[in-house]
Design goal:
The complex is a heterodimer of chains A (127) and B (327). Chain A has 127 residues and is an all-alpha fold. Chain A is 76% helix and 0% strand. Chain A starts with 7 loop residues before the first helix and ends with a helix. Chain B folds into two domains: 93 residues, Phosphorylase Kinase, domain 1 (2-Layer Sandwich), CATH 3.30.200; 211 residues, Aminoglycoside 3'-phosphotransferase, Chain: A, domain 2 (Alpha-Beta Complex), CATH 3.90.1200. Helices cover 44% and strands 16% of the residues of chain B. Chain B is built from eleven helices and nine strands. In chain B, strand 1 and strand 2 form a beta hairpin. The chains are: A mainly alpha (127), B alpha+beta (327). At the A-B interface, helix 2, helix 3, helix 4 and helix 5 of A face helix 6, helix 10 and helix 11 of B.
């Protein structure tokens, strides 16, 4: 990723702020609803720019260990899905549960960190 | 925005006048926000100096899905369920081809709150919240006990068919969501026998209820209704997405399962908690799949919409919910 400023994240941030401060107050109720949705989408993009690469690397590493071989993230995820669908994985294996939990938590830290189950899981982990 | 709304108001004046058989004056027509696929329009119809508070439910596209009833069928279900004591808006007329604006119907506008977060948080609904889980149980049994002979033709879905439909739909997207695959396997292993099929609302949840300070006033959105296992509805209303943040109140974010079950049984039904759990897992997976459908409705170009695209990123919520339910 280029580091010249404004960075990709800073550009997305600028568009989001424009929507928040200039567009939202100026449009009708129906368009304001979609503007709110658009603002939330840009917040997802901002979080993914920041957190995505690290989470992706960790997920990839876990999958290689879990499935015991190398491959692209997409190939390994597909393989895991097939094994799960056919019941060909020991779901009592803590490494398996750990992978699924971490993967879902990672996704939510980007998609919606306000989600109730995500917040509850964080509280449970820290107590 | 003003010009198309004005033109639509003229169109609707003509349509309503034809259906009511008298001159109709349309006032205050505007589109309500929300509703990713179907549109809802708010308006008053003045007929012979009498004001009727109405809603138009409209699907612009004429394409029908095998999963869901058409808007006409939806209207007919409302006409039948109201007779069995289900609180639903009265249907005034159903659009036909001559109307030329799509499929839809005009129904009574019932005053009250539908926004889940307000229902769950505003003081005004504190008393309603106390009773709503039990009321949901009672209303659900009235839906499930509708005489099936007088219903319009609906898809009759066996439990195995429902799961297969979901699985083939998911497979067709070619997306990889490990928790979805895990849930498919879990559900297949525990699929309950098919009961005698009855009318299932299939989208009975917080968000489709009109609520007043005294409790539930009406049930909306019959667009996923079908014949099937009654416990599906009891599981669906417990899906975490419909608790809107109140994760510790399993029924719609406002109540307890015990009260839902007690209301259902007091009305004459019988509850199978294990089956309800199966359907809560199924419902969580189904909502995740619907998020994918919405995203691909955008991605395929059928309807380009930032709202549909955004819903695609709600899949991860359901994956975490499935973990909480199954691991």
């Amino acid at each position: 990723m280029f580091t010249d400023r404004p960075t990709m994240k800073e550009l997305v941030e600028a568009v989001r702020e424009f929507l928040e401060t200039k567009i939202s107050p100026a449009v009708d109720k129906h368009t304001a609803f979609h503007t709110r949705v658009a603002i939330n989408v840009l917040k997802i993009v901002e979080r993914e720019i920041e957190l995505g690469p690290g989470l992706e690397a960790q997920e990839h590493e876990r999958l290689c260990r879990l499935l015991n071989h190398e491959g692209t993230l997409n190939e390994l995820t597909k393989e895991l899905c097939h094994k799960l669908r056919d019941g060909n994985i020991d779901n009592k294996d803590p490494a398996f549960a750990d992978h699924l939990k971490k993967t879902a938590m990672g996704r939510l830290s980007i998609d919606n960190p306000k989600y109730s189950a995500y917040r509850k899981a964080l509280e449970t982990a820290s107590s | 925005m003003a010009a198309p709304a004005e033109k639509f108001s003229e169109e609707l004046t003509e349509i309503a006048s034809r259906h009511f058989g008298r001159p109709v004056k349309i006032e205050g027509l505007h589109r309500l926000s929300g509703g990713a696929v179907a549109e809802s329009w708010w308006f008053d119809a003045v007929i012979d100096d009498k004001r009727h508070e109405l809603i138009l439910r409209l699907a612009r596209s004429s394409q029908s899905s095998p999963l869901y009833p058409s808007k006409e069928t939806e209207a007919k279900i409302q006409l039948v369920t109201i007779e069995n004591g289900v609180p639903v808006p009265k249907v005034y007329f159903i659009l036909d081809e001559e109307d030329g604006i799509g499929r839809g119907y005009v129904m009574q506008r019932i005053a009250g709150e539908t926004i889940p977060r307000k229902i769950l948080r505003d003081d005004e609904y504190a008393q309603a919240r106390e009773q709503m889980a039990r009321q949901c149980g009672e209303i659900l049994y009235r839906i499930h006990s509708v005489d099936t002979n007088i219903l319009p033709k609906l898809a009759a879905l066996k439990n195995s068919q429902q799961l297969e439909q979901l699985q083939s739909g998911y497979n067709a997207f070619g997306e990889n969501h490990p928790m979805f695959d895990f849930a498919f396997h879990w559900l297949k292993e525990r699929m309950p026998e098919d009961p005698t099929p009855c009318l299932v609302h299939s989208d009975f949840r917080n968000g489709n209820l009109i609520v007043g300070p005294e409790g539930i006033r009406a049930i909306l959105d019959w667009e996923m209704a079908h014949m099937g296992d009654p416990m599906e509805d009891l599981g669906w209303i417990s899906v975490n997405s419909w608790r809107f943040g109140n994760i510790d109140k399993p029924v719609g974010g406002f109540g307890e399962r015990e009260d839902l079950f007690a209301g259902y049984e007091a009305a004459g039904g019988s509850v199978d908690p294990e089956r309800v759990h199966y359907w809560e897992v199924f419902g969580t997976l189904k909502w995740g799949f619907i998020c994918l459908i919405q995203a691909f409705t955008h991605l395929s170009g059928t309807v380009r919409s930032v709202e549909l695209a955004a819903i695609g990123r709600r899949v991860s919520e359901t994956e975490l919910d499935l973990i909480d339910l199954l691991i």
